[in-house]
Design brief:
814 residues; 7% helix; mainly beta; globular; single chain
């Protein structure tokens, strides 16, 4: 959100060291490492599935005798995902960690006619199968009929990205690879450093990893992004959010990590290099039995273009990050499964400079750290009833260090936050209904220390810094320090059922209460319906949701403080009040259509109405983000997705989104140091920084599995976000860095598009290992573009030039 600009048109920031109190970072790091090591020591003892399905069954002949060694294959005809397993000596087979969707289960055995069955994975209750094979009287060729997937769809608007696509996705910028994958689906607008917006919500997506909700910021800038090498599938829900998901739930991204359960020892090792002296190292290792499994993933990335720069010449922009993930699964009994997971992440990087800061010698640094621990227990009371209980803890820390030559001001920060809580649920299947109820309880502890001082008054005045902020000098700096612990609670009940053939209704009710930092509560109905027309193979959808989203907790204390309110330009015009939870009403209508050759088209028209919409502001172009809220907002749009499933090695998708966002003042919270910030008073309508009218993306992939060769062509178009013009004459505006990338007549960044190409092949292939080579090129035409420019909410950031990266990857299995 709002940030200041200097008269170069770029956000200004400078720092010199200020005293920052806090616990020794070395001691904190030692505690984090000790916590992670404790996970490593007890990991082999622990397993569970949360937002993931299972298929279990038996194979028998016509007399009921169990068939051993039958080959069982489960395949998703839309994503191409295929797994196989033989039946054991009791004729039993099992598929774990199966992403939701429709699957074709084929069973074959010598002397028997093959069997083909369609199953739908719609909940974490295991699908039970009893397969009976008939004696073969002659050779039989089984032809699987065209998938009728729409008949079993839910009323949600969602896209599943399977591991088959994830492992072929471009990996030029691994730090933002997860966000790049998500943004290929319709409805998402991108900004700098992995920031994304969805259907009018500013970075309000809820990530759910193994059933553990993560409402905090998840991207490379906050050391919280996920390693895509450790992901089995992504389920991205943008419409009709189920009642089980609360908090930052403008959209839900369900991440299913890989597991070593019931698989031989296997692993990968990747080495890569690319533009801007970038280097990548990634490794995975997993394996286990039918009783337990372990999976480890580690990655490291460094680059001299670590963040999206504020000047196209890329000043002061080196950095690196490391991520370690561990998952352990254990079948304690036939009815009990336990899982333990742990993550350590960290990044050290420089804060990019504009031209004035680079010439002055400014060299700001930032460190971010994150660790996560969770333990989950699942108990099956019967084949149709189970419970899940998860305890989790997330810890984040961020430190910003100024430098002696900062201009026109200097700042330092040390903040940390810990979120721990319990999620419990009961799922029951009865007469075609999926009934689920649960509770969530969390405790959030926040501690923030922040200070700034104006170092060069003349430059600060030219940059438009307010008189109130100018009063803080190195001899008399602004200083803030506070810490609190507060709680949130939630409860829900939901039911998916079919009152009559071809109609499915999803109904849910959720209650939320939060005390961050304002005590507030809401009851939220969630209802949706889908009706299937067999003759035309069309599914019609409609839904209404009420959503309740507490404010982001990063820097919430200072953004809500009286000290920040004293500096707010909105305090005298009805703004500057406490930051209340964001609430919104969301409507959607749409349809899905099966087309010839198994193509599938999804269309959704949506509209949303907001109260206290969250729209954070960036402090003077730095990486420090302060939450605030705008009184009201309206958003509406159209999302379109065409999927072409795997056929003769080819697969493709195309996504398009059109949306419009309007916000209505005043503003509350935040930290504003501007004197000439755009005037947003009560009733003032304005276009926010995430109003992106048109967005489109596509990819066409060909994979020749037998020859080990694949290639992919992709592209993305965005029509440009609004900007705020500085008070300069046209000649001065035209001389600013990146002025050729904006349209001064429309007040928007110019439309931009980029194309990418990726390809790979198996260099060496043996029974137990293979080596693959991959080459990625992003922005093939080397087109200049800007994510934003002089925006009062997010500043200025330039897009990437042509990026080239190559890698070698070793795959091995026992």
């Amino acid at each position: 959100m709002p940030s200041s600009m200097n008269h170069s048109g770029l956000p200004c920031l400078s720092h010199s060291p200020l005293p920052v109190n806090g616990t020794s970072s070395r001691r904190r790091t030692t505690r984090r490492v000790a916590a992670f090591l404790s996970i490593l020591l007890v990991a082999p003892l622990l397993r569970a599935q949360m937002e993931i399905g299972r298929i279990v069954g038996t194979v028998a002949d016509s007399s009921g005798a169990r068939v051993q060694g039958a080959q069982v294959i489960a395949e998703n005809p839309l994503t191409g995902r295929k797994t196989q397993a033989p039946s054991d000596d009791r004729g039993q087979f099992k598929f774990e960690n199966v992403p939701y969707g429709t699957y074709v289960v084929s069973v074959s055995a010598g002397g028997f006619s093959p069997s083909v069955t369609r199953v739908n994975i719609l909940s974490n209750v295991a699908v039970q199968m009893q397969v009976q094979l008939a004696i073969a009287t002659s050779k039989v060729d089984i032809t699987v009929p065209a998938p009728d997937t729409l008949q079993h769809e839910t009323p949600r608007t969602e896209v599943v990205i399977d591991e088959n696509y994830i492992k072929l996705a471009p990996s030029v910028v691994r730090r933002d690879q997860l966000q790049a994958l998500v943004s290929t689906t319709p409805g998402w607008n991108t900004e700098n450093d992995g920031l994304m917006h969805i259907r009018g919500v500013d970075d309000g997506a809820l990530y759910v990893v193994d059933g553990v909700p993560t409402p905090d910021r998840v991207d490379g800038l906050f050391a919280g992004s996920f390693n895509t090498d450790a992901i089995t599938s992504l389920d991205i829900i943008t419409g009709n959010i189920p009642a089980e998901f609360g908090d930052r739930s403008g959209a839900v991204i369900i991440v299913q990590p890989k597991s070593g359960f019931d698989s031989p020892l296997n692993g990968t090792l990747l080495l890569g290099e690319g533009s801007f002296d970038s280097r990548d190292l990634s490794t995975t290792l997993g394996g286990g039995t039918r009783q337990w499994g372990l999976f480890f993933a580690g990655s490291g990335h460094q680059s001299n273009r670590f963040l999206d720069p504020v000047d196209p010449r890329n000043f002061n922009n080196g950095g690196g990050d490391v991520s370690l993930d561990l998952r352990a699964d254990w079948h304690a009994t036939e009815a009990d499964t336990i899982r333990l997971a742990g993550t350590l992440q960290g990044a050290n990087f420089r804060v990019p400079n504009n031209e004035d800061q680079q010439e002055a010698g400014q060299r700001q640094r930032q460190q971010v750290r994150h660790d996560h621990e969770s333990i989950a227990w699942q108990h099956n009371w019967s084949v149709n009833t189970l419970t899940d209980v998860v305890y989790s803890r997330n810890f984040f820390r961020s430190e910003l260090d100024g430098s002696p030559l900062d201009t026109p001001l200097t700042a330092n920060q040390n903040r940390h936050q810990a979120r721990q809580g319990v999620v419990a649920s009961l799922t029951h299947l009865t007469h075609g209904q999926i009934i689920k109820a649960g509770v969530e309880i969390s405790r959030v502890s926040m501690a923030e220390v922040f200070g700034f001082a104006v170092t060069h008054p003349a430059a600060a005045e030219e940059a438009g810094i307010s008189d109130a902020a100018m009063a803080f000098t190195p001899d008399h700096p602004f200083f803030f320090s506070d810490q609190v612990s507060r709680g949130t609670q939630g409860a829900y009940a939901q039911d998916d059922f079919s009152p009559f053939r071809n109609l499915t209704i999803s109904a849910g009710l959720r209650y939320d209460h939060s005390h961050l930092l304002v005590s507030d509560q809401q009851v939220s109905p969630r209802i949706g319906a889908i009706y299937y027309l067999p003759k035309t193979r069309t599914a019609l959808r409609a839904s209404f949701n009420r959503l309740y989203m507490p404010p982001q907790i990063e820097n919430l204390l200072i953004a809500s403080s009286q000290q920040a309110r004293d500096l707010s330009p909105f305090a005298q015009s009805g703004g500057g009040a406490d930051i209340r939870p964001e609430t919104l009403s969301s409507w959607e209508v749409g349809f899905s259509q099966e087309l010839p050759k198994a193509l599938r088209l999804n269309v959704a028209y949506w509209w949303r109405r907001f109260r206290n919409i969250d729209d954070p502001n960036v402090l003077l172009g730095t990486t420090i983000i302060f939450p605030n809220s705008v009184a009201r907002a309206r958003a509406q749009g159209l999302d379109v997705r065409l999927d072409i499933p795997l056929r003769r090695g080819f697969s493709a998708y195309a996504s398009y989104a059109n949306n419009r966002v309007v916000e209505i003042g005043p503003l509350n919270g935040g930290l504003f140091l501007d004197d000439d910030f755009i005037e947003i008073g009560p009733g003032t309508r304005f276009t926010p920084d995430h109003d992106q009218r048109n967005v489109a993306s596509f990819a066409l992939t060909y994979a020749a599995q037998k020859r080990g060769i694949w290639t992919s062509v992709s592209g993305r178009f965005e029509s440009g976000v609004p900007m705020e013009l500085p008070d300069l004459d046209p000649a001065e505006l035209a001389a600013l860095p990146g002025a050729n990338l904006v349209n001064f007549d429309t007040g928007r960044v110019k439309p931009w598009y980029v194309f990418g190409w990726s390809g790979g092949m198996a260099v060496v292939e043996r029974d137990h290992y293979k080596v693959g080579a991959q080459l990625d090129i992003q922005n093939v035409a080397n087109r200049d573009f800007a994510f934003n420019w002089g925006n009062p909410f997010s500043g200025t950031h330039f897009g990437y030039p042509r990026l080239i990266a190559g890698s070698l990857k070793l795959y091995f299995k026992k």
